[in-house]
Amino acid sequence: SENTVCPSPGAMSQALAKALPQAEGEGGSRRSSWGLLVTAGVGGTLVALYAVATPFVTPALRKVCLPFVPATAAQIQNVLKMLENRSGSLVDIGSGDGRIVIAAAKKGFQAVGYELNPWLVWYSRYRAWRDGVHQNTKFYISDLWKVSFSHYKNVVVFGVPQMMPQLEKKLEEELECNARIIACRFPFPCWIPDHTTGEGIDTVWAYDLKHSRGCETKSSEITPETES
Questions:
Q1: Is 88 helix (H, G, I), strand (E, B) or coil?
Q2: Interhelix angle for 118-130 vs 99-106, to 10°?
Q3: Which PANTHER family match (predicted)?
């Protein structure tokens, strides 16, 4: 058999002393690499979450600060109540995630939503497809101030006080007198509502444009006066 030579304790100590720094260097390098990978992974995840979530909470209408706030179930039911016995086309101004448009489509309306936030528009289209009403709904990426609503008979608005005066003027100029405007959360400043339902943030006001001062003025302007 072959003879085995055992190293002396001194030689073993010297070899171990040389090996330890090398092992510690390799372990430190591995730990550093893992740290970089973890940091990059967490950072990437946060960036992705920010990219997805930011459009849902930042202003959707640039002219007025109007953040996305989803309609409550009570608000949706109140809007649908104001649409009873109504027909024709419907538009939701600032349609958000599309829940009002989808609810109206389920009631038989050809419903359209205008929303400046592209993420919300794409999500609305997905929800409409998922709920089986994509053929009765359309969603457009557009600024409400650059769109004419003249061919809609039913208009739903989730606005803020700062935008209501100018929007009131815009709708009065564009809509026909048989149109109904439904305001949620905040009423229009000058119009007197024909119907009101709900409480607090769920309050909904309905305005029949034929009863507004603007339409009465238009009617008097186009109606010839007769001499007595």
A1: coil
A2: 30
A3: ATP SYNTHASE SUBUNIT C LYSINE N-METHYLTRANSFERASE, METHYLTRANSFERASE DOMAIN-CONTAINING PROTEIN
